[in-house]
Structures are given as structure tokens and as C-alpha cells.
Design a protein that fits this description.
Length: 355
């Protein structure tokens, strides 16, 4: 199979990570992948559109074109007319995030940067030009209104080599005198994520529920920096530094309130750092992990109570959950554990071209 992986310019955060992991995963399966990066420069949106159109003529030679970054750029129409199957990777709740950027984005440039992708996404959906959508979870599929027969689920995963590397960080872990809680903010606004204000409130409530001292660190990639006593908000940090921080943590808080586990949580779990998570009741039965694996709660109040209890009896809880989360990642979130339906779906739509 010969795949064109189309990547918009200026990607960061989760989109940059999934681009790297998709590329690496597909290559590991013996697939030839050409990564085509669009845009860049002073006007990234215009540059992306220009590069996309100019590259469209080359897509006819591929068995499949896979777009990441939520947007099926105009080139997918020309590729589709040439008989090339089209796949689109969706990150989160696309329409919610784009609409929020349109309404509340900083400045005209930011708002227009959401309008055009929203129009493209709506047009592709209405014209049925996407053969396969790739989503992280059932809830993401439903939120994006994707038909079940044109969607495959691909949860976050960790490569075996990453697990080996992360073990070296655990081995180098230094003892500390204070209990440490870590979480990671996001570039995107989404109704499925606890925001920084929620996290600050959570820490304050937990502090009133326990007599034990602890510190909280929120890593905010948008550059926000603040300090509230033992709660600190830090800027984006290099990956190695962030992984070392995760390895030093006694607890990681997952911000997603649907059933998805995001990359930060998976990396924490692979490092043996227990994870606490609020999952809204409507998504509870969609989880593929249990209360024996993570510190799970159905409400904000329950989450604060469970975290306070965890801190109060951390000598007992930490080794138990540390073992459980490592086992979960190794058995349920390795590339080999998640790739099956995804690879089958890619092969199926790529073969349609030759039938």
C-alpha cells in the first residue's frame, strides 16, 4: 500500500503527536508513506491552501490519501475524482472547537482560520467525499455525527519501544519529600475537557479535604504562568522534561470527561503514575478500563473526595494503582493491541480503487 499523509503546517500538541505516531505505525506495518506538509510562513492558512492545491495533481499516484488535523483540504476532491480513497483523522469534537474559535477567537485572523476549515468540513460531509473517518472514541464519533459504517476507532496508544524508554525514566526517578499531582492543559477549547479553572478549583477543594501536604503542577502549552501557593502553572516544556515530570508525579489528572484517555494520561500510566479521571455518567459504560485500574469518579465532588482519600493513604494506594496502570497500557494500549480494526479499514478502502 502506498499512502499520502497530508499534514497542515504549524501543527502542534496532539495533532503533531498523532502525525508522528501514525507515520511511524504505518511504516512499521510495511506500508510506504509519503508525509506531505502544507503551509507555513506569515500567513499559514493561505499558504496551506496554496500548497494543497499545487500538490493535488500528485495524489493520483497513491492508493490512499490520509488527512490529519481535522480538515479535508480541497485537494481531496481532486484525489477523489482520480479514484483515490480518502481517509480523515478527527481529533476531538471538531465542530464545537471550530465554532468556539469563530465566536471567541482573538482577532479577525484567528476567526477566519476557523471559518474556512469549518466550511470545508461541512462540504465534505454533505458531499460524502470522505471514505473513512478515524476517531479516538465512540463519543467523538457521535459528537462529529459520523456514520458508523464510515468510521473506525483508533484509541491513543504507546509503542513497545516507548515503553522500554519510559522504564529508564522510572529507574532514574528521585525520591522527594512532597506528594506531587500533575496535569496537562490544552491548546484547544472543548466541552469534553476540564479547563484550568476547574483544575484550580479541584486542587483547592482537595486541600480542604486532607491534612497532608501536596503540590500541584499544571503544564499549560499556551504559555500561561501563575502560582497559587503550592499550585503552579508552568509553560510548555520539552518532551524529555515533561516525561521526567510525569515520572516524578504521584498522581496525574486526566482532563477528558468522556471515555477517552489522552496521550498525557497514557504516558503517565506507562511510567507507573496513577491516574485520576472524571467520566460523565452518560459515557461511563463506554470505558474499557475499570475502577480497579484508575481512580474514577462520576462527578466533580466524587473526584475531589477520591483524590483526597488517595493522598491520605498514598502509601497503600500508590503501589496498587501504579501496577494496575502499567498493566493496562501494556495489554490494552500498545500499537499491536489497537491497530487491528484501523489497518483492516485502511486496506478495505484502498482495495476499492481496484475493484
Amino acid at each position: 500500500m502506498n499512502i499520502a499523509l497530508i499534514v497542515p503546517g504549524g501543527v502542534r500538541g496532539g495533532v503533531a503527536s498523532v502525525t508522528y505516531k501514525l507515520h511511524r505505525g504505518l511504516i512499521s506495518e510495511g506500508i510506504h508513506v509519503d508525509k506531505i506538509r502544507l503551509g507555513g510562513g506569515k500567513f499559514p492558512l493561505l499558504s496551506t491552501i496554496r500548497h494543497d492545491v499545487s500538490n493535488a495533481k500528485y495524489l493520483a499516484k497513491y492508493d490512499l490519501t490520509l488527512y490529519v488535523g481535522n480538515i479535508p483540504w480541497a485537494s481531496h476532491i481532486l484525489a477523489k475524482l482520480s479514484g483515490v480513497p480518502i481517509a480523515l483523522f478527527l481529533h476531538g469534537y471538531v465542530y464545537h472547537e471550530l465554532l468556539h474559535e469563530m465566536l471567541y477567537g482573538a482577532g479577525f485572523k484567528s476567526k477566519m482560520g476557523a471559518v474556512i476549515p469549518l466550511i470545508m468540513s461541512k462540504a465534505a460531509f454533505s458531499l460524502h467525499t470522505i471514505d473513512l473517518y478515524i476517531c479516538r472514541s465512540l463519543t467523538a464519533r457521535d459528537a462529529n455525527k459520523i456514520p458508523e459504517d464510515r468510521c473506525v476507532l483508533l484509541p491513543q496508544w504507546v509503542f513497545p519501544e516507548e515503553l522500554v524508554f519510559l522504564k529508564t525514566l522510572v529507574a532514574a526517578k528521585k525520591k522527594k519529600n512532597v506528594i506531587r499531582i500533575v496535569t496537562y492543559a490544552s491548546y484547544a477549547y472543548s466541552p469534553r475537557l476540564l479547563n484550568t479553572s476547574h483544575l484550580i478549583d479541584l486542587v483547592r477543594i482537595v486541600r480542604h479535604k486532607t491534612n497532608r501536604e501536596f503540590e500541584s503542577i499544571i503544564v499549560d502549552p499556551r504559555g500561561q504562568v501563575a502560582s497559587f501557593g503550592s499550585l503552579r502553572i508552568k509553560r510548555f516544556m520539552p518532551r524529555q522534561e515533561f516525561l521526567s515530570l510525569l515520572a516524578s508525579a504521584d498522581l496525574y489528572i486526566e482532563r477528558c470527561i468522556d471515555e477517552e484517555l489522552r496521550e498525557g494520561a497514557l504516558e503517565a500510566m506507562a511510567l507507573g503514575t496513577p491516574v485520576a479521571k472524571l467520566t460523565h455518567q452518560r459515557y461511563w459504560d463506554r470505558q474499557d478500563y475499570r475502577e480497579e485500574d484508575l481512580i474514577l469518579a462520576r462527578s466533580f465532588r466524587e473526584l475531589s473526595e477520591k483524590i483526597a482519600e488517595y493522598i491520605g493513604y498514598i502509601e497503600y494506594y500508590y503501589p496498587y494503582y501504579s501496577k494496575r496502570v502499567k498493566e493496562f497500557v501494556q495489554t490494552r494500549r500498545s500499537w499491536d493491541a489497537v491497530k487491528g480494526p484501523f489497518m483492516t479499514a485502511l486496506k478495505h478502502i484502498s482495495q476499492q480503487r481496484y475493484e
